[in-house]
Amino acid sequence: MADEDEAASVRQVWSALDLPGVIDVHTHFMPKSVMDKVWNYFDSAGPLVGRHWPITYRADESRRVAMLRQFGVRGFTALVYPHKPQMAAWLNQWAAQFARSTPDCLATATFYPEPDAADYVETAIRDGTRVFKAHIQVGRYEPNDPLLDRVWGLIEDAGVPVVIHCGSGPVPGEYTGPEPIRRLLRRYPRLRLIVAHMGMPEYAEFLNICESAAEVRLDTTMAFTPFTDDVMPFPPAQLPRLRDFADRILFGSDFPNIPHRYADAMRWLTELPGIDDTWLRAVFYENAATLFFPSTESSRQ
Questions:
Q1: Does a structural domain hold residue 299?
Q2: What is the domain extent for residue 226?
Q3: Are the beta carbons of 143 and 182 closer than 8 angstroms?
Q4: What CATH number corresponds to the domain at position 131?
Q5: pLDDT tens per residue across span 7-25
Q6: Which of 6, 85, 183, 256 is 20 to 30 A from 151 (CA-CA)?
Q7: Average pLDDT over residues 262-289
Q8: Is there a domain that residue 298 lies in?
Q9: Structural domains of the chain, count
């Protein structure tokens, strides 16, 4: 369980905004064998991480779920992602079972460019997947790979959001950056992409994409934190644009793989220049509620 003082600090942030809790669109739950490997990779400061990255919430699965509930997180994700073929379908099976046993978790799935990708994506959608995860950096694949053509078409038609790590942070990849996403959206303009990490470090470019694509959103994961600002700070000149996209920015934490406290991730957002309570209410809860729970958002369930 979380420290009582920390849980109280998290709850104080959202309760001061008269919210019923928070919705976190960027949390990770994975099979234990996979999560252990992810943590080992972070511990070793592997090349896709680039530097020492302590894991604040290294605990067993049930304890991590209990922590989020103590914080008042009303909805969260189990963002799984493959780094090689013949992995995604197995991760999807695990994530579906996790969602069935964890009702406050949005049923999550993923995919990889491989011949059967469209088949298992179609199955995931039919079985109730609420959000997909695509990790262009770790997966090292071109989002416009022909093997994904039918995948994107199915997801676009179903209107299922995709949390997509496509910015070039923390370390650039061969296919990261805004241009592959621009090409993707020209082909599938109705895709509901949630660009992870505000698109860091190409913040301005991904805000530009939001201007031209009505269904593209951004999540705040790891942005605006001292850990990130040391190497990839959000440009001060772009801060006024955060208000322009108040309805397209969603809170994400990267829990449990964060080098700071959950309460701090929320508090740093409240301290952004020019941000008011209306913006914070939208980002911490209302935007995600509208996207994922449209029938209950008005009653703020």
A1: no
A2: 1-289
A3: no
A4: 3.20.20.140
A5: 999 999 999 999 999 999 9
A6: 256
A7: 98
A8: no
A9: 1
